[in-house]
Amino acid sequence: MSTAANTQSADPRTAPSREQRTPSALRGVLSLARAELTLLLRNRTAIFNTMLIPLVLVVALYFIGVPSDAGPGNLLVITASVMAMAYIVYYNLVTTYVARRESYVLKRMRTGTVSDLGILVAAALPSIVLALLQISIVVLGAFVIGSPPSLNNALAVVVGVVLGFIAFAGLAAASTPITKTAETAQVTTLPVVMISMGLSGMFFSLSILPDTLETIARFTPGAAVVELLQTGLSGIDRYGNVIAGFPEALAAMTRPTLVLLMWVAITFALVRDRFAWEPRR
Protein backbone atom coordinates (compact mmCIF):
# COMPACT_ATOMS: atom_id res chain seq x y z
CA MET A 1 0.00 0.00 0.00
CA SER A 2 2.82 2.37 0.79
CA THR A 3 4.38 1.70 -2.61
CA ALA A 4 1.10 2.47 -4.32
CA ALA A 5 0.68 5.61 -2.27
CA ASN A 6 4.19 6.76 -3.10
CA THR A 7 3.62 6.03 -6.75
CA GLN A 8 0.40 8.01 -6.71
CA SER A 9 1.97 10.97 -4.92
CA ALA A 10 4.87 10.93 -7.33
CA ASP A 11 2.54 10.91 -10.33
CA PRO A 12 3.27 14.16 -12.17
CA ARG A 13 -0.39 14.42 -13.08
CA THR A 14 -1.24 15.01 -9.40
CA ALA A 15 1.36 17.79 -8.95
CA PRO A 16 0.49 21.37 -9.89
CA SER A 17 1.94 22.33 -13.26
CA ARG A 18 3.82 25.53 -13.95
CA GLU A 19 0.74 26.85 -15.75
CA GLN A 20 -1.29 26.26 -12.60
CA ARG A 21 1.30 27.83 -10.29
CA THR A 22 1.82 30.94 -12.42
CA PRO A 23 -1.77 32.26 -12.24
CA SER A 24 -1.75 31.53 -8.51
CA ALA A 25 1.44 33.56 -8.05
CA LEU A 26 0.01 36.38 -10.17
CA ARG A 27 -3.18 36.41 -8.13
CA GLY A 28 -1.10 36.63 -4.97
CA VAL A 29 0.84 39.63 -6.29
CA LEU A 30 -2.34 41.39 -7.43
CA SER A 31 -4.00 40.68 -4.09
CA LEU A 32 -1.10 42.29 -2.21
CA ALA A 33 -1.09 45.19 -4.68
CA ARG A 34 -4.80 45.81 -4.07
CA ALA A 35 -4.19 45.87 -0.32
CA GLU A 36 -1.32 48.35 -0.76
CA LEU A 37 -3.43 50.51 -3.06
CA THR A 38 -6.22 50.58 -0.49
CA LEU A 39 -3.78 51.81 2.16
CA LEU A 40 -2.33 54.38 -0.22
CA LEU A 41 -5.75 55.73 -1.17
CA ARG A 42 -6.42 56.37 2.51
CA ASN A 43 -3.44 58.72 2.52
CA ARG A 44 -5.20 61.95 1.62
CA THR A 45 -1.94 63.88 1.49
CA ALA A 46 -0.56 61.59 -1.21
CA ILE A 47 -3.76 61.83 -3.24
CA PHE A 48 -3.89 65.62 -2.85
CA ASN A 49 -0.29 65.99 -4.00
CA THR A 50 -0.94 63.68 -6.94
CA MET A 51 -3.71 65.97 -8.13
CA LEU A 52 -2.21 69.33 -7.13
CA ILE A 53 1.38 69.05 -8.35
CA PRO A 54 0.54 68.45 -12.02
CA LEU A 55 -2.00 71.28 -12.03
CA VAL A 56 0.54 73.67 -10.52
CA LEU A 57 3.10 72.50 -13.07
CA VAL A 58 0.74 73.11 -15.98
CA VAL A 59 -0.24 76.57 -14.78
CA ALA A 60 3.35 77.59 -13.97
CA LEU A 61 4.79 76.57 -17.31
CA TYR A 62 1.84 78.14 -19.11
CA PHE A 63 2.35 81.57 -17.53
CA ILE A 64 6.12 81.54 -17.09
CA GLY A 65 7.07 79.78 -20.29
CA VAL A 66 10.29 77.78 -20.36
CA PRO A 67 12.17 77.70 -23.67
CA SER A 68 12.85 74.18 -24.80
CA ASP A 69 13.61 72.31 -28.01
CA ALA A 70 10.93 69.82 -27.02
CA GLY A 71 8.01 72.27 -27.26
CA PRO A 72 5.76 73.43 -24.38
CA GLY A 73 3.34 70.49 -24.41
CA ASN A 74 6.09 67.91 -24.65
CA LEU A 75 8.08 69.71 -21.96
CA LEU A 76 5.09 69.45 -19.63
CA VAL A 77 4.81 65.71 -20.16
CA ILE A 78 8.55 65.10 -19.85
CA THR A 79 8.80 67.16 -16.65
CA ALA A 80 5.75 65.48 -15.14
CA SER A 81 7.13 62.04 -15.98
CA VAL A 82 10.48 62.61 -14.29
CA MET A 83 8.83 64.25 -11.28
CA ALA A 84 6.40 61.35 -10.94
CA MET A 85 9.23 58.84 -11.09
CA ALA A 86 11.38 60.73 -8.59
CA TYR A 87 8.68 61.61 -6.07
CA ILE A 88 5.71 59.28 -6.39
CA VAL A 89 7.60 56.13 -7.36
CA TYR A 90 11.02 56.57 -5.74
CA TYR A 91 10.39 58.66 -2.61
CA ASN A 92 6.95 57.30 -1.83
CA LEU A 93 8.11 53.73 -2.36
CA VAL A 94 11.11 54.13 -0.05
CA THR A 95 8.78 55.25 2.74
CA THR A 96 6.42 52.37 1.96
CA TYR A 97 9.13 49.71 2.05
CA VAL A 98 10.65 51.10 5.24
CA ALA A 99 7.29 51.44 7.00
CA ARG A 100 6.35 47.87 6.07
CA ARG A 101 9.74 46.62 7.20
CA GLU A 102 9.67 48.38 10.56
CA SER A 103 6.18 47.01 11.30
CA TYR A 104 7.28 43.47 10.33
CA VAL A 105 4.75 43.39 7.50
CA LEU A 106 7.38 42.41 4.93
CA LYS A 107 8.58 39.59 7.16
CA ARG A 108 5.05 38.24 7.51
CA MET A 109 4.49 38.49 3.77
CA ARG A 110 7.44 36.19 3.17
CA THR A 111 5.62 33.37 4.96
CA GLY A 112 3.01 33.32 2.20
CA THR A 113 3.10 31.92 -1.31
CA VAL A 114 4.26 35.10 -3.04
CA SER A 115 7.96 35.28 -3.91
CA ASP A 116 10.27 38.00 -2.60
CA LEU A 117 10.25 39.71 -5.98
CA GLY A 118 6.47 39.48 -6.09
CA ILE A 119 6.20 41.19 -2.70
CA LEU A 120 8.37 44.09 -3.85
CA VAL A 121 6.46 44.39 -7.12
CA ALA A 122 3.11 44.34 -5.32
CA ALA A 123 4.21 47.19 -3.06
CA ALA A 124 5.44 49.19 -6.07
CA LEU A 125 2.35 48.86 -8.28
CA PRO A 126 0.13 51.37 -6.40
CA SER A 127 2.83 54.05 -6.60
CA ILE A 128 3.22 53.40 -10.32
CA VAL A 129 -0.56 53.69 -10.77
CA LEU A 130 -0.54 57.08 -9.01
CA ALA A 131 2.42 58.20 -11.13
CA LEU A 132 0.56 57.26 -14.32
CA LEU A 133 -2.46 59.17 -13.03
CA GLN A 134 -0.36 62.27 -12.44
CA ILE A 135 1.16 62.08 -15.93
CA SER A 136 -2.31 61.62 -17.43
CA ILE A 137 -3.57 64.75 -15.66
CA VAL A 138 -0.67 66.73 -17.11
CA VAL A 139 -1.35 65.40 -20.61
CA LEU A 140 -4.99 66.45 -20.25
CA GLY A 141 -3.91 69.85 -18.93
CA ALA A 142 -1.61 70.33 -21.92
CA PHE A 143 -4.58 69.84 -24.23
CA VAL A 144 -6.68 72.26 -22.18
CA ILE A 145 -4.13 75.09 -22.43
CA GLY A 146 -3.75 74.53 -26.15
CA SER A 147 -0.29 72.92 -26.14
CA PRO A 148 -0.99 69.23 -26.76
CA PRO A 149 2.05 66.94 -26.76
CA SER A 150 3.10 65.40 -30.04
CA LEU A 151 4.05 61.78 -30.68
CA ASN A 152 6.81 60.86 -33.10
CA ASN A 153 7.89 57.45 -31.83
CA ALA A 154 5.61 55.51 -29.50
CA LEU A 155 8.25 52.85 -28.87
CA ALA A 156 10.66 55.38 -27.37
CA VAL A 157 7.92 56.71 -25.08
CA VAL A 158 6.93 53.24 -23.88
CA VAL A 159 10.55 52.20 -23.30
CA GLY A 160 11.30 55.41 -21.41
CA VAL A 161 8.25 55.20 -19.16
CA VAL A 162 8.40 51.45 -18.45
CA LEU A 163 12.15 51.23 -17.85
CA GLY A 164 12.02 54.50 -15.92
CA PHE A 165 9.41 53.12 -13.54
CA ILE A 166 11.38 49.90 -13.07
CA ALA A 167 14.69 51.71 -12.53
CA PHE A 168 13.27 54.16 -9.96
CA ALA A 169 11.37 51.38 -8.17
CA GLY A 170 14.64 49.45 -8.03
CA LEU A 171 16.42 52.50 -6.64
CA ALA A 172 13.73 52.74 -3.97
CA ALA A 173 14.25 49.14 -2.88
CA ALA A 174 18.03 49.64 -2.95
CA SER A 175 17.73 52.74 -0.74
CA THR A 176 15.83 51.05 2.06
CA PRO A 177 18.87 49.47 3.79
CA ILE A 178 20.29 52.95 4.48
CA THR A 179 16.91 54.32 5.63
CA LYS A 180 16.19 53.51 9.26
CA THR A 181 12.70 54.99 9.50
CA ALA A 182 10.07 56.40 7.17
CA GLU A 183 10.81 59.86 8.56
CA THR A 184 14.52 59.72 7.67
CA ALA A 185 13.56 58.92 4.06
CA GLN A 186 13.31 62.67 3.52
CA VAL A 187 17.08 62.81 3.99
CA THR A 188 18.27 59.55 2.44
CA THR A 189 16.24 60.02 -0.75
CA LEU A 190 17.29 63.62 -1.31
CA PRO A 191 20.47 62.90 -3.34
CA VAL A 192 18.68 60.66 -5.83
CA VAL A 193 15.76 63.06 -6.20
CA MET A 194 17.96 66.13 -6.68
CA ILE A 195 20.41 64.46 -9.06
CA SER A 196 17.67 62.77 -11.07
CA MET A 197 15.91 66.06 -11.64
CA GLY A 198 18.78 68.53 -11.62
CA LEU A 199 20.91 66.60 -14.11
CA SER A 200 18.06 65.23 -16.20
CA GLY A 201 18.10 67.90 -18.90
CA MET A 202 14.42 68.75 -18.44
CA PHE A 203 14.87 72.52 -18.49
CA PHE A 204 18.21 72.90 -20.25
CA SER A 205 20.34 70.94 -22.64
CA LEU A 206 23.02 68.89 -20.92
CA SER A 207 25.40 69.85 -23.73
CA ILE A 208 25.92 73.26 -22.07
CA LEU A 209 27.59 71.55 -19.09
CA PRO A 210 31.33 70.91 -18.88
CA ASP A 211 32.27 67.70 -20.67
CA THR A 212 32.95 65.69 -17.52
CA LEU A 213 29.73 66.76 -15.83
CA GLU A 214 27.74 66.14 -19.01
CA THR A 215 29.13 62.61 -19.24
CA ILE A 216 28.18 61.93 -15.62
CA ALA A 217 24.71 63.39 -16.15
CA ARG A 218 24.07 61.17 -19.18
CA PHE A 219 24.41 58.12 -16.94
CA THR A 220 21.69 59.21 -14.51
CA PRO A 221 18.28 57.54 -14.86
CA GLY A 222 16.49 60.88 -15.09
CA ALA A 223 18.56 61.99 -18.07
CA ALA A 224 17.99 58.66 -19.81
CA VAL A 225 14.21 59.00 -19.37
CA VAL A 226 14.27 62.58 -20.68
CA GLU A 227 16.33 61.56 -23.70
CA LEU A 228 13.95 58.74 -24.60
CA LEU A 229 10.88 60.94 -24.16
CA GLN A 230 12.41 63.70 -26.26
CA THR A 231 13.03 61.14 -28.99
CA GLY A 232 9.52 59.73 -28.72
CA LEU A 233 7.55 62.95 -28.31
CA SER A 234 9.54 65.66 -30.06
CA GLY A 235 11.56 63.58 -32.50
CA ILE A 236 14.87 65.14 -31.46
CA ASP A 237 18.11 63.61 -30.21
CA ARG A 238 20.14 64.57 -27.15
CA TYR A 239 21.63 67.59 -28.93
CA GLY A 240 18.31 68.92 -30.23
CA ASN A 241 18.79 67.68 -33.79
CA VAL A 242 15.69 66.48 -35.63
CA ILE A 243 15.58 62.70 -36.11
CA ALA A 244 14.89 61.89 -39.76
CA GLY A 245 13.39 58.40 -39.54
CA PHE A 246 12.83 55.25 -37.52
CA PRO A 247 16.38 53.84 -37.94
CA GLU A 248 17.81 57.10 -36.62
CA ALA A 249 15.32 57.00 -33.75
CA LEU A 250 16.43 53.48 -32.81
CA ALA A 251 20.04 54.66 -32.82
CA ALA A 252 19.12 57.59 -30.57
CA MET A 253 17.28 55.24 -28.22
CA THR A 254 20.17 52.80 -27.80
CA ARG A 255 22.34 54.62 -25.27
CA PRO A 256 19.62 55.85 -22.86
CA THR A 257 17.96 52.43 -23.00
CA LEU A 258 21.23 50.76 -22.03
CA VAL A 259 21.67 53.29 -19.20
CA LEU A 260 18.27 52.41 -17.74
CA LEU A 261 18.93 48.69 -18.14
CA MET A 262 22.23 49.23 -16.32
CA TRP A 263 20.39 50.84 -13.40
CA VAL A 264 17.86 48.02 -13.34
CA ALA A 265 20.68 45.45 -13.18
CA ILE A 266 22.60 47.37 -10.50
CA THR A 267 19.58 47.86 -8.26
CA PHE A 268 18.49 44.24 -8.72
CA ALA A 269 21.91 43.05 -7.54
CA LEU A 270 21.88 45.43 -4.57
CA VAL A 271 18.37 44.42 -3.53
CA ARG A 272 19.17 40.73 -3.83
CA ASP A 273 22.22 41.04 -1.58
CA ARG A 274 21.33 43.83 0.85
CA PHE A 275 17.56 44.28 1.13
CA ALA A 276 16.40 43.98 4.75
CA TRP A 277 13.06 42.29 5.35
CA GLU A 278 12.86 43.05 9.05
CA PRO A 279 14.15 45.80 11.37
CA ARG A 280 17.81 45.71 12.27
CA ARG A 281 18.04 46.35 15.99
UniProtKB/TrEMBL annotation:
Residues 1-11 have a biased composition (Polar residues). Signal peptide: none annotated. It is a multi-pass membrane protein. Its main location: membrane. Residues 1-23 are annotated as: Disordered. It is found in: Membrane. Coiled coil: none annotated. The keyword Transmembrane applies. Residues 78-270 form the ABC-2 type transporter transmembrane domain. The chain crosses the membrane at residues 46-64, 76-99, 119-145, 151-175, 187-209, 249-271. GO terms for cellular component: membrane. This is ABC transporter permease.
